């Protein structure tokens, strides 16, 4: 019978991706109800190094397949390995980072296992059936990001697989010593990939700047002019803040997609957030969590952003920014 909460330990260049610690937090919440063990799935050349990083997350068990060569981007071969691992472990659920790499990889895994895969979840909740079995309600935005939907894997089909957006769960606290059991699945061999990895180039834009920033200045439709956006950048520079924005600001090219905040972008947890010309639609505000100080500036006193901000200024964004720069 399917049992256990699996977390995919995405890694690159011998290091565990930070988003894995967020998935462990989500798995811990599920475990409180289901009492299942949390198990990590790891496929890598540098298994030993990454295993030590995974242990710090308080995982119950680690299942690893050590590859002879670096298997980055070789989705055809790695997906075969992961599918075979899941068949052996028989987990009830698999939590996957909603990253470019894992999305590409697990779409293949789902096809091989003939099971469902829910994409871009922003919330996971556990419920119980009449027979006493547990299942996961996989919540996510849908229909043009305008509404939330709950997706449930068909009863009797396992594992329940879902990708979870980075940033929606906080990272689990690391521990020094753990009793994690490590299992090497040496009988699973990675087949030869038909994909040849030639070169990796750095991203032109750094998403980490908004994900790790203490202060974020966020622009909305009110910043959609060269003059206003230039003022926004000057204020951000003065405050030492990162710049984020709503979807319209990304669509018009004022900010890269990697700095878009909300249901269709990234989730941020800054100490201070300053919203400029942002109306406050839920599609955007769902991407701002645990802010200690939230300041909103909008010329519309009825703007929904004032319902969630700590302090609000009703006024023209341009005039307010010019005043700030004069301080």
TrEMBL record:
<feature type="binding site">
    <location>
        <begin position="277"/>
        <end position="284"/>
    </location>
    <ligand>
        <name>FAD</name>
    </ligand>
</feature>
<dbReference type="GO" id="GO:0050660">
    <property type="term" value="F:flavin adenine dinucleotide binding"/>
</dbReference>
<feature type="binding site">
    <location>
        <position position="221"/>
    </location>
    <ligand>
        <name>FAD</name>
    </ligand>
</feature>
<dbReference type="Pfam" id="PF01012">
    <property type="entry name" value="ETF"/>
</dbReference>
<feature type="domain" description="Electron transfer flavoprotein alpha/beta-subunit N-terminal">
    <location>
        <begin position="5"/>
        <end position="199"/>
    </location>
</feature>
<comment type="similarity">
    <text>Belongs to the ETF alpha-subunit/FixB family.</text>
</comment>
<dbReference type="GO" id="GO:0033539">
    <property type="term" value="P:fatty acid beta-oxidation using acyl-CoA dehydrogenase"/>
</dbReference>
<dbReference type="InterPro" id="IPR014730">
    <property type="entry name" value="ETF_a/b_N"/>
</dbReference>
<feature type="binding site">
    <location>
        <begin position="260"/>
        <end position="264"/>
    </location>
    <ligand>
        <name>FAD</name>
    </ligand>
</feature>
<dbReference type="GO" id="GO:0009055">
    <property type="term" value="F:electron transfer activity"/>
</dbReference>
<dbReference type="InterPro" id="IPR033947">
    <property type="entry name" value="ETF_alpha_N"/>
</dbReference>
<protein>
    <submittedName>
        <fullName>Electron transfer flavoprotein alpha subunit apoprotein</fullName>
    </submittedName>
</protein>
<dbReference type="InterPro" id="IPR001308">
    <property type="entry name" value="ETF_a/FixB"/>
</dbReference>
<dbReference type="InterPro" id="IPR014729">
    <property type="entry name" value="Rossmann-like_a/b/a_fold"/>
</dbReference>
<feature type="binding site">
    <location>
        <position position="298"/>
    </location>
    <ligand>
        <name>FAD</name>
    </ligand>
</feature>
<feature type="binding site">
    <location>
        <begin position="246"/>
        <end position="247"/>
    </location>
    <ligand>
        <name>FAD</name>
    </ligand>
</feature>
<dbReference type="Pfam" id="PF00766">
    <property type="entry name" value="ETF_alpha"/>
</dbReference>
<keyword id="KW-0274">FAD</keyword>
<dbReference type="InterPro" id="IPR014731">
    <property type="entry name" value="ETF_asu_C"/>
</dbReference>
<keyword id="KW-0285">Flavoprotein</keyword>
<dbReference type="InterPro" id="IPR029035">
    <property type="entry name" value="DHS-like_NAD/FAD-binding_dom"/>
</dbReference>
């Amino acid at each position: 019978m399917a049992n256990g909460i699996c977390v995919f330990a995405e890694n690159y260049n011998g290091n565990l991706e930070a988003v894995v610690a967020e998935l462990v937090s989500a798995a811990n919440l599920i475990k409180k109800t289901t009492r299942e063990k949390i198990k990590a799935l790891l496929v890598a050349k540098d298994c030993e190094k990454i295993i030590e990083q995974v242990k710090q997350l308080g995982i119950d068990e680690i299942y690893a397949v050590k590859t002879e060569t670096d298997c980055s981007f070789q989705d055809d071969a790695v997906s075969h390995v992961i599918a075979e691992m899941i068949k052996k472990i028989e987990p009830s659920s698999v939590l996957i980072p909603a990253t470019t790499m894992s999305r590409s990889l697990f779409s293949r895994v789902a096809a091989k296992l003939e099971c469902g895969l829910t994409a871009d979840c922003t919330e996971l909740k556990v419920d119980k059936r009449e027979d006493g079995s547990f299942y996961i309600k996989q919540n996510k935005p849908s229909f043009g990001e305008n509404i939330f939907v709950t997706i449930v894997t068909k009863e009797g089909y396992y594992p329940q697989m879902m990708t979870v957006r980075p940033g929606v769960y906080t990272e689990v606290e690391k521990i020094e010593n753990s009793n994690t059991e490590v299992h090497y699945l040496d009988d699973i061999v990675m087949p030869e990939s038909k994909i040849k990895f030639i070169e990796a180039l750095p991203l032109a834009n750094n998403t980490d700047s908004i994900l790790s920033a203490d202060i974020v200045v966020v622009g909305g439709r009110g910043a959609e002019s060269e003059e206003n956006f230039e003022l926004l950048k000057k204020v951000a520079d003065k405050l030492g803040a990162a710049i984020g924005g709503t979807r319209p600001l990304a669509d018009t090219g004022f900010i890269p997609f990697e700095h878009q905040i909300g249901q269709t972008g990234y989730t941020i947890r800054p100490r201070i957030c300053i919203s400029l010309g942002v109306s406050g639609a839920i599609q955007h505000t769902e991407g701002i969590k645990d802010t200690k100080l939230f300041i909103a500036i909008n010329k519309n006193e009825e703007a929904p952003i004032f319902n969630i901000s700590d302090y609000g200024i009703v006024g023209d964004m341009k005039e307010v920014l010019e005043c700030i720069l004069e301080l």
